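To assess whether the prediction recovers the assembly geometry, we first specified each molecular entity separately, as shown.
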Amino acid sequence: MARARKLLLISPQATFFGRNPQHQRFKRESREFQFFDYTWTGFATGLVIVGSLTPPGWDLHYIDENIEPVDFDEDADLVALTGMTAQADRMYEIAAQFRARGVPVVAGGLHANLLPFEVARHVDSVCVGEAEALWPQVIHDFTHDGLKPMYRQTTRADLSVVPRPAYELAQQRYYPSIWVETSRGCPHSCRFCAATIRYRDKLGYKTVDQVIREVEYVQERWDNPYVLFSDDNFVVDRNRTRELLSRLVPLGIKWSGQSDVSFYKDPEILDLMHESGCMTMLIGFESVSTETLDGIDERNWKFRNLSKYVEAAKTIQDHGVGVYGAFTLGLDTDTKDSFEATAQFVKENYLAGIQVSCCTPFPGTPLRDDMERENRILPDKSWSYYTVFDAVYQPKHMTPEELEEGALSVYRSFYNREFSLRKTRHFKSIYRNLVKKKVEREQALATTGRSMV
Amino acid sequence: MTDTTLLEEPFLTIQRIIAQVAKTSPQAVVLENPVTGITNVDSIVMLEIVARVELELDIEIDEEQLFAISTVGDFVAVCRDLTAART
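The predicted structure of the complete assembly is given in tokenized form:
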């Protein structure tokens, strides 16, 4: 019998917070921040998708270097690497080790999509596009000794027919949250966002049946999994969202997702989110400054919606769904006052959590083009500093150090015991109201057999 | 805490509510459990549990007290003190 070929699927190590010492110290010391960091940790989705597209007869080994070291002596016929820009330097080191042994290396993921020719210098083959559209050809060519240096996607993957990701590959590793993808793409083209520019110009969806089957599959493999829906924007198609949420209710999971604020005006979606176990939504507010939001995305959607941020955050949270606000600081209209303004907004509105990043000019973005033209990219900051928490360019109205320190100051003012107590009081009163209503509904149902409207 | 604690209020109420909210079996809820270590319970889920317990037992747990709770046993002790003080 022929020996099974072996494919190593490797996610290289990276720092998932600022590399600068102040950020690392804060991460070590803040219990409140550690909880946020812990909740949003999941596996490398691209690799489990590649696993699902690899034909039978291959032995697959998934390695997350943030959890376990890579054994460079492990038998392997082929290595597949993925990574965001912050992982690129390490991705090249890993590739070099395997190639020195004569093991071919293929790279995909965000950084390979952003800078394919740079990545091509370090690996045998680069995949530019979605795995579903490319990987079957890569495997075919490899098994016929015809691996090409670059594969480019020509047609968009139809997500409604893709196989279920091979979640089982990551099952034995310890992940607090399990990523499940229901759609790919985002209608907003923000100037600094690399993912939506390179991955997909048009939204693609899995069917609701597909998603439910995937969640059930995850439930079979993990005890009470915490699901993170990895969609860039979970609530774009409202009808589909309503159907999906209704179908999630009986599954009894707890979950989080990501979106813009637009769904706050849809009470049905808000109720269904709470009922289906939605704990938090990560919402890309980006900024609380009119000047900064003006022109931040192609349609100026976020600028037009700034005035609704307060009402939106309150409405969503009053429905029992915590808002994790994502903010990007250091854009050209930001000044040192922007930090205090952001801190004030997140505290006055009792957001459940925050992610405050330093604006990062990823390769391939319009922002990067501007920065390069103006000679503002810091040359001593290698890719491993592109964590989105380290300043890698010269901001207009402050030094890079002031940007890092300012972003951290927002974290410090939010993730601390005193504010956590105030936030807890706030959320407890929201939950008391929700529970009261729930109990009333349950009692009405028990006594009359009819649910209250 | 004595073994009888497991047969008495407020443990029984707390056990039932945690199991109901966390969608786990009551038997999985024991005094030694860290409150956010029970399967499916994180700090936000815990707030729903606290809100339900407060309503059922007609008590109000202060945030400082809440932050000091690390196990189900601590939670039971706080609720028992508050219900005793109420009567």
